Amino acid sequence: MSTSKLYQIIPSEVCFSCDVCCRFLEADSPLAPIFTETEKQHIISQGADPILFQPQADGKSSQIKLKLHKDFYICPFFEPETSRCSIYANRPFDCQLYPFALMFNEDRNSVVLGVDMLCPFGEAHLETEAFQQHLQHVISYVESETVMEQIAANWSLIGEYQDTVKVFHTLNQKLTHATPTINPRR
């Protein structure tokens, strides 16, 4: 999946001081990052252990296996001492998208894009002009033909509805029709 046009709006210093991302309450969290096959193979070619990846029901993507750290679980690429990602330059689309989230709506009849309100930056800057402009950029990017095709092929990237995500946009209905009615990811 090409992600060259998707940039991160959250300043690094904010991320480095946050304790939300890359941490999970359970080992099998449905929110652990999803890698497309291309992303997975690239990270493996950079030295990642192939056993870190769990194949998903779509047959084309894999979810990272989390590891225990203190009383929670973390992505194996997350460095808790520095709050940095060891694969940041090559992180998967799923991570690049954050604090935005792809998910089914509550009725499960469409795919929506929202902002995770657990992200302190997203919550604090949601109404700013810069954030709203970035949201429009993300919508355009996600709805580009190439990205929509990749999401449809890797439908495990679409999560179940989360009430902590504020929905801003319903994605093209072609995407909803290209996904199965049951998504085992989340």
The average pLDDT value, as a whole number, equals 90
- Tell me how many strands there are: 11
Q: Number of helix segments?
A: 7
Largest sheet: 3 strands, antiparallel
Q: What's the gyration radius in Å?
A: 16 Å
Q: H/E element string? A: HEEHEEEEEEHEEHHHEH
The percent range for strand residues is: 15-25%
Helical content stands at 25-40%
Shape: globular
Strand order of the largest sheet: 1-6-5
Number of domains: 2
Poorly predicted ranges: 182-186
Which structural class do the helices and strands define? alpha+beta
Termini separation (Å)? 21 Å
List the helices and strands and how they pair.
Elements: H1 12-16, E1 23-24, E2 34-36, H2 37-45, E3 53-55, E4 61-64, E5 67-69, E6 72-74, E7 78-79, E8 84-85, H3 93-97, E9 100-104, E10 111-116, H4 120-125, H5 129-142, H6 145-153, E11 165-170, H7 173-178
Antiparallel strand pairs: 1-6, 2-4, 3-4, 5-6, 7-8, 9-10, 10-11
Question: Could you describe the 3D structure shown?
Answer:
The protein has two domains: 81 residues, no CATH class; 80 residues, no CATH class. It has 186 residues and is of the alpha+beta class. It is built from seven helices and eleven strands. The longest helix is centred in the C-terminal third of the chain and has 14 residues. The strands form four sheets. It has a three-stranded antiparallel β-sheet with strand order 1-6-5, with no helix packed on it. Strands 2-4-3 form a three-stranded antiparallel β-sheet.
